[in-house]
Task: structure prediction
Amino acid sequence: DQQVKQNSPSLSVQEGRISILNCDYTNSMFDYFLWYKKYPAEGPTFLISISSIKDKNEDGRFTVFLNKSAKHLSLHIVPSQPGDSAVYFCAALLMNRDDKIIFGKGTRLHILP
Amino acid sequence: EADIYQTPRYLVIGTGKKITLECSQTMGHDKMYWYQQDPGMELHLIHYSYGVNSTEKGDLSSESTVSRIRTEHFPLTLESARPSHTSQYLCASSDGRGRPYNSPLHFGNGTRLTVT
Result:
């Protein structure tokens, strides 16, 4: 039973345009949401996070939007660059004794020249 | 820059062999984790540790075991490898003083295990 869902396995975007990666979740008790980026043959790296009490967090070219009523979040990358080609994992955190992070399946982003 | 190392990067081994996947970090992080990931699938937490002599099983049932005798070292062992253990294994650590949203997981580059 997936608690964090990334329904698009892959996405292709022209360089310079906006990339929008989507994520849905089922547990309304999640406290934080995180995005990780993964290049082939490397481990994931942390990108950006957002608290469940916020609706937007921005860091340079990366912005995450949270819609709690829809249980949906999205990562916007503007402008998209060739180095953004990677797999992006959406993750959710329930803050309790264990602070475990639950990951989605990932979306592979291809930035086209 | 995170310094967390996993060896070997790739391992092909026959059924029934005992294997140990190594993970070391030089950041002095208290929390360490093992995740298992199949292509196109989620990362599943299989073991975690919040400090020396502390180990817990994760959400995904695993036949592997772990130990945490030193802060920097968190090896994962499979006593008898089977083809169903074929997967990528990712080790991660985080600063135990913070919470995961501001003290995010730092991952190693993973070990891709194939059991024939």
In short: Chain A touches chain B through 27 residues (CB under 8 Å). Residues 20 and 76 of chain A are 5 Å apart (CA to CA). Residues 4-112 of chain A form a domain with the Immunoglobulin-like fold (CATH 2.60.40.10). Chain A has a mean pLDDT of 93.
